[in-house]
Amino acid sequence: MKLLPRLGALIALAGLVACAPSPASLPAAPVAAGSAIAIQAVPVPLNPEAPGQTAIGGFVYAGGLQLSSAETSRFHGLSDLAVSPGGRLTAISDEGDLIEGQLVFAGERLTGLTDVTLRPLSGLDGQPLPNKEMSDAEGLAILANGDRLVSFERQSRIWLYPAAGGPPRAVPAPDAEFPLNGGLEALAADPERGPDAYVAGGEESGQTWLCRLATPCVAGPKVDKAPEFGLVAMRRLPGDQTAYLLRAWDPLRGNRIVLSITGTAGELARLEMTKPLTVDNFEGVDFVPRPEGGYRVYILSDDNFSASQRTLLLAFDWTP
Description:
It is a single chain. The protein is mainly β. The chain has helices at 3-18, 132-135; strands spanning 36-37, 40-43, 55-56, 59-68, 78-83, 88-93, 97-106, 109-120, 137-142, 148-152, 157-161, 169-171, 184-189, 197-202, 207-212, 218-222, 230-237, 241-250, 254-263, 266-273, 282-289, 295-301, 311-318. Helices cover 6% and strands 48% of the residues. It is globular, with a radius of gyration of 19 Å.
């Protein structure tokens, strides 16, 4: 009997479906948004089954939001983010949009997102990206001069969008073959190596590359991860430390998230999230230094344009 292989194939197929946009929930055609959109931000607890839980290990919960907009069908699929010290948020979507807004706080607790704009990423010709093959933006890095780097998955490449505006240009990307839906998910600036340095990572392989704007990418370390986890985001921290966001999904346990912070001596800290915690398809992470020391850590989920998933933005405070 071949029930077990068939069952395994069905589970694998279910996993692919869960990580892909739901066709029934996608707009029939791209729906344009005005430059400004209103966002509904609903607070979410860290653990719905234990509302009093305020931390996961050394990561102290600083508020979380479920985000949505009734003004456009394109405020979905958010796949990476960057947050400035002043709370200015920049995000990209895997339908090729750029989202910007201002985080709102009550004291130090995250409570909202306002002054939001949404506009399409342009191609090399200055026009909006024409289709999903071209617009599957997954990684975001902002260099010291404000230029934005965006990595794309289906047609693997990295483009630089100038801070001053105008069309992007192609910059060095890893010379590697990537599996479908398992490519250039992770991207981060690497300021300790220089103002033009960045790192990229493959989702399925966990392989990373060290890149510069003017020289080819070279292979870096491979992330130590379980096979079922994919590398979906990364950030470089001072002192040759790196934060890796890893994601796994299966139909029995749902989404599982690991944020691993490593240094030259090994893993320094680890945040793990699974049910019953407030968890979804987290794909973006950023670290903002706090004046009193440590970091405000933000993680962002990609709802895959599906009614069964959510766009979540969670905040944690972590002190090494």
